[in-house]
Write a structure and sequence with these properties.
The protein is 31% helix and 33% strand. By secondary structure, the protein is of the alpha+beta class. The chain has a single domain (3-178), classed as PPM-type phosphatase domain (Phosphatase 2c, domain 1, 4-Layer Sandwich). The strands form two sheets. The chain has a five-stranded antiparallel beta sheet. Strands 2-3-4-5-8 form a five-stranded antiparallel beta sheet, covered by helices on one side. It is globular and about 40 Å long.
Length: 179
């Protein structure tokens, strides 16, 4: 079973332009979309992201799904999409500065594009730059190691961001995942 927690906050921005998408069927899919204020159609870009992901089927390759998405949104919009199958393989693809980090074997590392093998207990955080740039790998790892679930891990990280910025650093979006 996969546990997850999401965080969405507009920060000091006038509007919330990002999006976090999670679906558990037919396999676990998570996406973080970093909207841009200068695009009037940013909210429709977030809608396009969720619709493309909802319409994807189990046999669809992640590259194919992201290519369909790329055709429908401006090329400088940033996003990360990952899927975890029943064998605990994660397939991820990111565009821009949206990032996924994994707490694995006592260290925090950036999840690469492509397929990566997970093991039970691994924890992943996917977030926009405004969120992760206010955290350190050491802090994220320490929080992951003492957390009993994703909600607690997210709470610890949000507290770190809040202590540093009072959440006044633009849109903040993230999803934590524990396999």
């Amino acid at each position: 079973m996969i546990d997850y927690a999401c965080f969405k906050h507009k920060g000091n921005a006038e509007n919330y332009y990002d999006e976090v998408f999670v679906s558990e069927l037919p396999f676990f899919t998570a996406a973080v979309f970093c909207g841009k204020e200068e695009y009037i159609n940013t909210l429709s870009c977030a809608f396009v992201l969720s619709e493309v992901l909802k319409d994807s089927k189990e046999g669809d390759q992640l590259e194919t799904i992201c290519a369909a998405l790329d055709e429908k949104i401006p090329e400088d919009i940033e996003y990360l999409v990952l899927r975890i199958d029943d064998s605990l393989k994660v397939d991820s693809l990111r565009r821009g500065q949206v990032l996924a980090c994994i707490a694995n074997n006592g260290e925090m590392m950036t999840l690469p594009n492509g397929i990566y093998g997970l093991k039970e207990g691994d924890m992943i955080v996917c977030s926009v730059k405004n969120f992760y740039s206010n955290l350190t790998n050491e802090g994220m790892l320490a929080d992951a190691l003492i957390s009993s679930d994703c909600n607690e891990w997210m709470d610890y990280m949000v507290r770190r961001v809040s202590d540093k910025t009072e959440l006044l650093c633009g849109n903040l979006s993230a999803v934590c995942i524990k396999v």
